[in-house]
Amino acid sequence: MSSSKPESPGGNKVQGIGGAAVDLRDPWQSWQELSGSKPSSPQGDGSESCWYLLGYADTRRTLQDHELASSQKDPYGKTSEDFGLIPGELDPPLHRSYRSILNPFFSPSRIAKRESNIRNFCVELIEGFRESGSCDFMEQFAFLYPTAIFLEIFGLDVARCEEFVELTHRFARPRSDTERQEVEASIDAALHELFRQRRIAPKDDLASELLRAEIDGEPIPERELLSMGRLLFIAGLDTVAATLGWSFLHLATRPKDRIALVDNPELIDSAVEEFLRYYSVITVSRTLTADTTINECPMRAGDTLVVPFAPANRDTTEYDRGDEFVIDRYPNRHVGFGLGPHRCLGSHLARTELRIALEEWCSRIPEFSLAETDSIPGISGLDPLLGKGLSVPMLDTLPLAWAKS
Amino acid sequence: MINGDSVRIALNPGLCSGHARCHAVDPALFPIDDDGYSELAERIVEGELVKAAREGAHICPERAILIDGQ
């Protein structure tokens, strides 16, 4: 294949970075093929290079060292005018000020209190299509489920779920800069209106909490609140939908693992961790603040480090049988939620959402498979594997079928 | 010096990033604060808790929990 774009759902392989073939059924394998030959692969030919970190040890060292590997778009221009998404694109100590406002809202104990609401959303969606014997898992479950939960947490109207699914999808994978700006404006407008209402009448939601929060004794300016809101959108919805998609594609095509979960629900906790390890959808980037050498590669201040979590998570020097899916793997010290100060804020929420989805599917629709067994689902966002961006690899569709009750 | 079936556990607070995986292993042994970050004070763990102490230390993705002993 010579194409540089995914050809889905036709051919099942496309060419990725370094010429490696990308298998659309398991695009992560292409990272492993690369990492087997060279741990870090230089990209770009200008004065500032872009490096891919493909091993566990390099990934861990880099994500934990925020002084060497900055999250700010421009680590040298530290004025407030330069900030990107807050707090994702800030370094400590400023990062900590914003993060500490968000942390309590997403802590394990606060998320545990939401469990029954999360389960209700999940059950309502499943029962909406269960008797029909089929669904498109992505359209009818994977996008709606985390979006509804997030809208409720934030304080937005859950009835607008489909509108926000569409916005998030376009925000994560805009076809042009213009589209990205349009979508940002739409999200900002919705958040602006929500903040306006909550200033008048606060409720028990994240929007009200953000309005009450102070940094250095001052309320947070609205443009910073909008930045925080935008990041929560992009970080919390797409990622869970993508992980659900890959997890359920796995179960639909590997009946042994599906039956194991149905027969032994106590395996669901370890299965969630293994899905997060084996199908890691996140890629982050950092900017070097000083010259350094990683894996004998001389790197310079200003160089970009691209850090996909997937190859680190399948690194066989760190994980026993790291290239295999092991449903009862324990302990599972994976990096699916990243490492260091930017550890995924929503990790406890995401874990709960994934666990409840598996629990309810396994009890309500225990026997499901791909509706069209010959088809390879289309995938958006393969760009990180093709070396062009940081978006989340996402199944476009996942048609599932089961015996009607 | 720690002998027999006991281990010393302690936190490197600079490394804890709030994964709370230790807490999931044993909430009493590995307490967390309201933000979800470890509040582990250095202690010696004995007997049947040793297994949980080892698991909690080993599962930390940041390797923020120090453990020694036999």
If you had to describe this structure to a student in words, what would you say it looks like?
The complex is a heterodimer of chains A (405) and B (70). Chain A has 405 residues and is α+β, with helices and mostly antiparallel strands. Chain A has one domain (13-401): Cytochrome p450, CATH 1.10.630.10. Chain A contains 17 helices and 16 strands. Chain A has helices at 29-37, 56-64, 94-102, 108-113, 115-129, 137-142, 144-154, 161-172, 177-200, 206-212, 222-236, 238-253, 255-263, 268-278, 309-313, 347-364, 383-386, and strands at residues 13-15, 21-23, 40-43, 50-53, 69-70, 134-136, 214-215, 218-219, 283-288, 292-294, 297-299, 304-308, 369-370, 379-380, 394-395, 399-401. In chain A, the strands form six sheets. In chain A, strands 3-4-12-9-5 form a five-stranded mixed sheet. A three-stranded antiparallel sheet of chain A has the order 6-16-13. In chain A, strands 1-2 form a two-stranded antiparallel ribbon. The longest helix of chain A is centred in the middle third of the chain and has 24 residues, at 177-200. Chain A is globular. Residues 1-11, 36-42 and 78-82 of chain A have low confidence and may be disordered. Chain B has helices at residues 21-25, 50-59, and strands at residues 6-11, 43-46, 65-69. Chain B has a single domain (6-69), classed as Alpha-Beta Plaits. By secondary structure, chain B is of the alpha+beta class. Chain B has a three-stranded antiparallel sheet, with helices on one face. Chain B starts with 5 loop residues before the first strand and ends with a strand. Chain B has two helices and three strands. Chain B is globular, with a radius of gyration of 11 Å. The A-B interface holds A 64, 100, 103-104, 106-109, 331-335, 337, 339-341, 343, 347-348 and B 15, 17-21, 23-24, 32, 34-37, 55, 58-62.
